[in-house]
Amino acid sequence: MEPAPTLAATLDTLLAGCGATAALEAPVRRRLVAFVQLLAKWNRVWNLTAVRDPDQMLERHVLDSLGLLPFVDEAPRLDGVPDLLDIGSGAGLPVLPLAIARPGLACVSVERTGKKARFQRQAVLELGLDRVRVRADRIEDVGQRASIVTSRAFTAPEAFLQLAAAHVAPGGRALVMLGRAERLPDRLPAPFELDRLHRLEARHERHVAVCTART
User: Fold this and answer.
1) Tell me, what CATH number does 88's domain have?
2) Interhelix angle 114-127/26-46, nearest 10 degrees
3) Is the C-alpha dihedral spanning 157, 179, 152, 208 positive or negative?
4) What's the CA gap between 172 and 213, in Å, rounded?
5) Residue 17: which pLDDT band, with cuts at 50, 70 and 90?
6) Residue pair 72/51 in contact by the 8 Å Cβ criterion
7) How many domains does the chain have?
8) Among 85, 97, 91, 141, which residue's Cα sits nearest to residue 121?
9) Sorting pLDDT into bands at 50, 70 and 90, what band is 20?
10) What order of strands is seen across the sheet that includes strand 132-135?
11) CB atoms closer than 10 angstroms to residue 181
C-alpha cells in the first residue's frame, strides 16, 4: 500500500491546483488519504473500481467528488429530511469524500451491490462518519427524500433525473455530474428546472448541472 505521506503530498498538490487547500483542514485531508488507502486495499480483492493506482484514485475519484462541495454548501437544507442522498454510490463516490469534507452533513448512500455497500459500511466505521447511513438497496425500493440528490457515473442524465424526482424534497436540488459526452435533455423531467451548468475540471471536460425541484 502506498505510504500515507506520499498520498498526502499528492492530495495537497491536487488541491493546490484547484485552489482548495485552504478550505480543507489537515484532519480532513488525513481522512481523505485514509479513505483512498482503504479503497485501494479492498479493491485488490473486491474489484470496487477500475482505477487501481491510489494516486489516480485521489485525482479521478476524490478530487472529482470534492468538485461538488460549493454546490452542496450553497444548497438549502430542508426540514425533516437528510441533507444528501447519493444514488448508485458504488464505492462511496461522491458521498464519502463529501461527508469527510463536511462532517455535519446527514447523508444516505444507496448502493445495490452488496460488496460495494459492505465496503462503504467499513469505511464509515473506520473513518468515524457517523452521519452517513448506507443502504444496500435498489433506489426504486427506497422511500427517502433529501435536500440534495446526487449521483456519479450511475446512469444517463435523463434517467438519473427521472429517478431523482421521487427522492428530492420540494425546493431541493439534484446535482448531475456530466462526463465529456453527456448532455442534459432539452426538456428536464418534472419537477426539475436547470439553475445553471458549471464546468468542474477543464482537463477532463467535466460539468455539473444544478437542477432545482420546483415547489
Assistant:
1) 3.40.50.150
2) 150
3) negative
4) 5
5) confident
6) no
7) 1
8) 91
9) low
10) 132-135, 107-110, 84-87, 146-151, 168-178, 206-213, 192-201
11) 6
In whole angstroms, give the CA distance from residue 125 to residue 115: 15
**Grid coordinates given for 36:** 483512498
C-alpha grid cell for residue 91? Answer: 464505492
pTM recorded for the entire structure: 0.95
Q: What is the pLDDT of residue 4?
A: 83
Contact (Cβ atoms closer than 8 angstroms) between residue 7 and residue 37: yes
From CA 43, how far away is CA 37, in angstroms rounded?
10
CA distance 197 to 179: 13
Could you report how far apart the first and last alpha carbons of the chain are, in Å?
49
pLDDT tens for 70-119 read 999 999 999 999 999 999 999 999 999 999 999 999 999 999 999 999 99
Distance between alpha carbon 44 and the CA centroid of its chain, in Å? 22
CB 167 within 8 A of CB 161: no
Any idea what DSSP says for residue 137?
S
What grid cell was written down for 52? Answer: 487501481
The number of residues in the chain equals 215
In this predicted model, what pLDDT tens digit does every residue of 152-209 receive, in sequence order? Answer: 878 899 999 999 999 999 999 999 999 888 899 999 999 999 999 998 864 567 899 9
